[in-house]
Q: What sequence folds into this?
């Protein structure tokens, strides 16, 4: 048989693998080595290296300069927008990153950078390009600035701002301003010029926005696969997010560091807003007797968080293939950062006199974050998933990945896969690995040892580089087929144990109308599937 190759990137409208055209190798189109010449540098590199430093942003500019940001899922972005508007900033969320952004990122910055860097750099660059075409470069540098999270490493995340700087230079927008929100510093105070204050009211607003958005996202993904009327979940989510956006925008103006912290922790303002979200979701009717595999999403932070081209739209693709998606909460990442800080202080006990104090502060911060998540979750009747314990994740990952190795998700990626497997939280794990990511390459290596020990752990690591969608989805589909069989088997075993049949289960559910509401919690009884847990719930109530 003649060797054959598959087209490497199908059109976006064709998402089915069976629709991929097969092309004979000898008739395949020969692409030129490089279709687009690299951009010329606008600043000659003949001086010493200087770290990027934005021009000051003054208070007087606040009313006319729009702050751009993005890189999370749309619910979190919308709520952060509300929190920032409450503080008097003009804001705009960047459009969702697309494949065109990936290509622009590769052209304008370092071609060897990890794919999330290319997506985010290209996303900003393409937005600015469109604005330059509309109002000119000078107006763009005057009227916009960009704010993003940053850190000192240990991966390329510590160099994102360098990528932005290079792309901006290549666009001829050297004086465009990019500000970094240091993820390890909750209170950076006013930035040069005083226009941007990365202080406690700002940071707490962003954290609360992330926590609330995560819970809404989780509720949405637990509901949509079972909705009786198609589109109800989408409508409820849009309404809920707008309601919360409004709550953030209208919250009392908070200026002081401690008064802001106290207000967030002590008042019931956001609990009441979340109860309204519950009332919106009360109207969504569900049928949880449908048997579906639960797929836990893990992987690199950016790829597991966004929904769209950067991860081949994997969330919606999995749902279309008949799965229930267990999304990755950003709050777990915040919890992990606090755990990393606590570990570091723990290691310095005996060397640094204030280490114990700092350790206590980090642990208190962790407790308060988890308490807030649990408090808001309760307002949604505890339907969204709980947060896994960081200590448990660390212990599970310890035989395979050192807990002091940071960068990317560190040992958490391994810990989460094992947590889902041992605790029967999901039937399979889909792990999103970025092209050219060093920490992720290490995690994948560690996962090989995990799979050697637990060969029946269903694990689909898919490499994301923007142009291998068919390969990635087909790999995921193979494991998903196994997960579907496992979910069905589990359901049948539960029926046998409980003496129920599918018909009797449906009758029992119909006799309890509250079970058809999206906001009725079905507890976890040690099996992964929603239908299997429902059967155990109904059987328990009948005894
Ligand atoms: S974890 Fe990997 S993909 Fe993410 S920023 Fe770091 S190097 Fe890039």
A:
């Amino acid at each position: 048989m003649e060797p054959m190759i598959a087209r490497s990137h199908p059109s976006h409208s064709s998402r089915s693998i069976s629709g991929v055209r097969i092309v004979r190798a000898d008739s395949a189109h020969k692409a030129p080595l490089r279709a687009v010449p690299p951009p010329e540098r606008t600043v000659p590199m003949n001086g010493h290296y200087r770290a990027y430093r934005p021009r000051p942003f003054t208070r007087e500019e606040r009313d006319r300069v729009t702050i751009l940001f993005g890189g999370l899922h749309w619910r979190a972005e919308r709520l952060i927008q509300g929190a920032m508007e409450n503080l008097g900033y003009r804001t705009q969320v960047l459009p969702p990153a697309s494949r065109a952004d990936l290509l622009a990122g590769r052209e304008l910055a370092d071609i060897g950078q990890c794919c999330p860097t290319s997506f985010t750099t290209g996303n900003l660059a393409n937005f600015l390009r469109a604005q330059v075409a509309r109002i000119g470069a000078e107006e763009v540098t005057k009227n916009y600035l960009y704010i993003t999270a940053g850190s000192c490493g240990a991966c390329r995340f510590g160099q994102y701002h360098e990528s932005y700087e290079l792309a901006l230079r290549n666009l001829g927008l050297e004086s465009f301003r990019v500000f970094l929100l240091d993820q390890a510093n909750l209170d950076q105070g006013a930035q040069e010029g005083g226009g941007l204050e990365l202080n406690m009211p700002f940071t707490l607003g962003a954290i609360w926005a992330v926590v609330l958005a995560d819970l809404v996202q989780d509720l949405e993904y637990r509901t949509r696969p079972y909705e009786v009327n198609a589109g109800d979940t989408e409508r409820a989510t849009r309404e809920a997010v707008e309601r919360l956006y409004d709550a953030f925008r209208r919250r009392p103006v908070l200026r002081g560091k401690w008064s802001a912290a106290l207000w967030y922790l002590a008042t019931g303002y956001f609990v009441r807003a979340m109860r309204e979200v519950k009332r919106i979701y009360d109207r969504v009717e569900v049928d949880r007797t449908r048997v579906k595999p639960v797929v836990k999403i893990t992987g690199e932070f950016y790829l597991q968080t966004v929904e769209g081209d950067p991860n081949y739209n994997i969330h919606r693709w999995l749902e279309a293939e008949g799965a229930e998606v267990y999304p990755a909460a950003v709050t777990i990442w915040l919890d992990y950062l606090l755990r990393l800080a606590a570990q570091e202080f723990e290691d310095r006990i005996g060397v640094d006199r204030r280490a114990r104090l700092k350790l206590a502060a980090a642990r208190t911060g962790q407790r308060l974050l988890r308490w807030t998540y649990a408090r808001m979750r309760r307002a949604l009747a505890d339907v969204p998933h709980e947060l896994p314990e960081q200590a448990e994740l660390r212990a599970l990952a310890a035989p395979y990945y050192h807990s002091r190795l940071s960068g990317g998700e560190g040992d958490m990626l391994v810990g989460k896969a094992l947590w889902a497997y041992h605790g029967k939280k999901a039937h399979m794990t889909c792990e999103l690995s970025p092209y050219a990511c060093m920490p992720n390459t290490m995690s994948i290596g560690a996962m090989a040892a995990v799979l050697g020990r637990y060969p029946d752990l269903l694990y689909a690591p898919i490499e994301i580089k923007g142009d291998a969608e068919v390969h990635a989805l087909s790999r995921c589909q193979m494991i998903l087929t196994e997960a579907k069989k496992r979910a069905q088997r589990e359901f049948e075993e539960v029926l046998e144990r409980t003496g129920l049949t599918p018909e009797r289960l449906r009758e029992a559910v119909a006799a309890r109308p509250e079970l058809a509401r999206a906001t009725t919690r079905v507890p976890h009884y040690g099996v992964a599937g929603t239908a299997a847990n429902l059967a155990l719930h109904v059987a328990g109530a009948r005894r």
